[in-house]
Design brief:
This protein is 21% helix and 31% strand. It has 375 residues and is α/β, with parallel strands linked by helices. The chain folds into 2 domains: 144 residues, Carbamoyl-phosphate synthase small subunit, N-terminal domain (Glucose Oxidase, domain 1, 3-Layer(bba) Sandwich); 216 residues, Rossmann fold. Strand 3, helix 1 and strand 4 form a beta-alpha-beta unit. The chain binds glutamine (GLN). Belongs to the CarA family.
Length: 375
C-alpha cells in the first residue's frame, strides 16, 4: 500500500500528521470518537454520521475487511475516518474488499497512524469540535481557516441529504422467505439503519420505508399497524417537517422512535433537545429501565439529547403525560420516553445494535405487542 501523507487539524489548531487512508482529498466535519471494539463497517455506513468524522478508539482497524452483507445503508455519509493502525491484510471468510479500497471507492477521506488516544482525550476534555483531514494542504493556519467556514451541525437539516428519494418495500433475503407478514409497519427514513428494517422484518412485519418528507395523511392512507421514526443525522430541531408529520400520527397509530426519531418525538411532545459535549458513540453505554431497575448495555450514536424535565420523570404534553422511562447511568441523560395516554414510546439508543450488544432487542417485541393490542 502506498503511504501518502495526511493531516488532521482541529478547530483549536491542534494537528496530527499521519498517512492517508482511503481517498485523497480534503474534507471537514465534526470530529467524534467511537468506543466500539468492532463493527467499523456498520459505523461507516450509518447515515447518522453525516456531517461528522469518526475516530475509532480501538487501535487496530481493517483486519476483517468489508463485505456486502454488513451495510447499514446504501452508501457512506460520514465526512472522514480516523484510525490509529490500519491493517492492510484483511483476514476473514466474509471479506470481499479491504477497508482502504472501500473508502477509495466511496471517495471518503481518512487518516491512519495518528495518536488516537491523545485525540480522544482532547475531544473528551474540551468537547467535540470541527476538524479537517487533508492530503493536499499541510499548512495548519490555512486548514484552521477552512474549518471556520465549515457549517457544523447545529441548526442544519441533514436528514434531507440522507433520506431515500422514493418509497420502497424492505425485502430481506435472509429472513423473509415464506413468512406470512401480519403487521404492516411504515418506517420514516431519516437516515435509517438497515438493521432496524431487518429486525422488524424478521419479527414478522411487512416493512415499507418512506422519505422523511412524506406527509402523515399519506401514511394514514396506507393503513399501517404502526410507524417507526428512524435514526438519522444532525440537529433534530432543524427538521420541523418531521415534527409536523409526527403530530399527524400521534394518537392515531402506534409510534416507536429510535435515536433521532426519539428526539423528534420528544420535540413534538413539547420537550426540548440540546447538544452534548462529545456525545455517546459506542457499544458500552449503560442504561437503566426505571421501572424494572434492570440495566442494559446499549449501542449508541448521538450528539444531541432530550432535556430532562425540571422535576421527577413526568412531563405534561398536549398528548397527555410523558414519562422518562430510561436513563443513562454515565451522565443521567434521558434514554427513553413513553406516552401514558397514547401508544407511543421511544429510545435514544439502538435496539438494532449493529454494531453492539443486543440487550435492547426486546423493544421490537414491545412495539409488536403494542401494535397487536391496537389492531
Ligand atoms: N443515531 C442518531 O439517530 C443520531 C441522532 C442525532 N443526529 C444526534 O446526533 O443526536
Amino acid at each position: 500500500m502506498d503511504k501518502k501523507r495526511a493531516i488532521l487539524v482541529l478547530a483549536d489548531g491542534t494537528s496530527f500528521t499521519g498517512y492517508s487512508l482511503g481517498a485523497a482529498g480534503e474534507k471537514a466535519g465534526e470530529v467524534v470518537f467511537n468506543t466500539s471494539m468492532m463493527g467499523y463497517q456498520e459505523i461507516l455506513t450509518d447515515p447518522s454520521y453525516k456531517g461528522q468524522m469518526v475516530v475509532m478508539t480501538y487501535p487496530l482497524i481493517g483486519n476483517y475487511g468489508i463485505n456486502e452483507k454488513d451495510y447499514e445503508s446504501r452508501s457512506l455519509f460520514l465526512e472522514g475516518f480516523i484510525v490509529k493502525e490500519y491493517s492492510p491484510f484483511p483476514s476473514n471468510w466474509r471479506s470481499q474488499i479491504s477497508l482502504d479500497e472501500f473508502l477509495k471507492n466511496k471517495k471518503t477521506v481518512g487518516i491512519q497512524g495518528i495518536d488516537t488516544r491523545e485525540l480522544t482525550r482532547r475531544l473528551r476534555d474540551y468537547g467535540a469540535q470541527q476538524g479537517i483531514i487533508s492530503t493536499e494542504d499541510f499548512d495548519v493556519f490555512s486548514l484552521t481557516k477552512k474549518i471556520k467556514s465549515a457549517p457544523g451541525l447545529v441548526g442544519i437539516d441533514l436528514v434531507k441529504s440522507v433520506t431515500c428519494n422514493n418509497l420502497y418495500e424492505w425485502k430481506d433475503s435472509d429472513s423473509d422467505a415464506g413468512k406470512s407478514k401480519r403487521l404492516k409497519v411504515v418506517v420514516y427514513d431519516c437516515g435509517v439503519k438497515y438493521n432496524i428494517l431487518r429486525k422488524l422484518n424478521s419479527a414478522g412485519c411487512s416493512v415499507t420505508v418512506v422519505p422523511a418528507q412524506t406527509q402523515s395523511q399519506t401514511i394514514l392512507n396506507m393503513k399501517p399497524d404502526g410507524v417507526v421514526l428512524s435514526n438519522g443525522p444532525g440537529d433534530p430541531a432543524a427538521v420541523p417537517y418531521m415534527i409536523e408529520n409526527i403530530k399527524g400520527l400521534l394518537g392515531k397509530k402506534p409510534v416507536f422512535g429510535i435515536c433521532l426519531g426519539h428526539q423528534l418525538m420528544a420535540l413534538t411532545l413539547g420537550l426540548k433537545t440540546y447538544k452534548l459535549k462529545f456525545g455517546h458513540h459506542g457499544g458500552n453505554q449503560p442504561v437503566m429501565d426505571l421501572h424494572t431497575k434492570k440495566v442494559e448495555i446499549t449501542a449508541q450514536n448521538h450528539s444531541f439529547a432530550v432535556t430532562a424535565p425540571q422535576e421527577g420523570t413526568m412531563q405534561k404534553s398536549p398528548y397527555g403525560n410523558v414519562e422518562i422511562t430510561h436513563v443513562n447511568l454515565n451522565d443521567k441523560s434521558v434514554e427513553g420516553l413513553k406516552c401514558h395516554s397514547i401508544p407511543a414510546f421511544s429510545v435514544q439508543y439502538h435496539p438494532e445494535a449493529s454494531p453492539g450488544p443486543h440487550d435492547a432487542s426486546y423493544l421490537f417485541e414491545r412495539f409488536i405487542e403494542m401494535m397487536k393490542y391496537q389492531s
